[in-house]
Amino acid sequence: MGCPGMSGASPANPSTAMRNVRLPFPAILLLAASLYVLATVRWVPVHRALASLYPPLPPGGGTGLVVVKSANWLFVFEDGRVVRRYDVATGKAPFFTPEGHFTVANKSADPGDPRYGPRWLGLSVPDAADKRGPAGDPRAPAGHKYGIHGTDEPESIGGYHSGGCVRLRNEDVIELYERVEVGMPVEVRR
Q1: Domains located in the chain, CATH noted
Q2: Which residues are catalytic?
Q3: Residue numbers in the chain where pLDDT is lower than 50
Q4: What integer pLDDT is reported at residue 30 of this predicted model?
Q5: What is the C-alpha to C-alpha distance for residues 181 and 177, in angstroms, rounded to an integer?
Q6: Which string of DSSP letters, residue by residue, matches 10-37?
Q7: CB-based contact 157:89 (threshold 8 Å)
Q8: 4, 95, 161, 181: which has the fewest Cβ within 10 Å?
Q9: What's the sign of the alpha-carbon dihedral 185, 53, 174, 124?
Q10: Which of 104, 153, 97 is nearest to 129 (CA)?
Q11: How far apart are alpha carbons 97 and 12 in whole angstroms?
């Protein structure tokens, strides 16, 4: 009596048992693929992988906003601490949200267009960073082509759905609007 898949193996001679193990072909492929992955993948410690999602302090000190496009999150920093994280929507192809260091250029409690929701925070994105060209979106409040604003499409939050702006749920942008001052630093990163 022996183990299935072992021919001529006996418990008395374990070396013979290991030499005569027969694996089905799919198991051999799986084993080979696993060994290949283990040999070629660059493993990163979990804390370093998570650190790439968690943003650094905002530019210019301990108060500001950081948008992480890869996670569709907006972090609010006060005195060097994260005090709030919001789920957001960022730009879809070909109008990706520009990356870089900006400031809040203006605020509007009435953006005048329901697509922007109840609040608008204009960003100081220079024309060189604007892939849409100098004209931008003429409907954007106060001439700013990019901003942080609410939405009439709350189901878009968490995805890549905007024309380059950062969208929040309407209740979130109202809360954020109260925390933000004109001139506050904003970092948008991948």
Answers
A1: 58-189 (2.40.440.10)
A2: 149, 165
A3: 1-3, 6, 9, 44, 47-48, 51, 132-136, 138
A4: 80
A5: 8
A6: BTTBHHHHHHTB---HHHHHHHHHHHHH
A7: yes
A8: 4
A9: positive
A10: 97
A11: 68
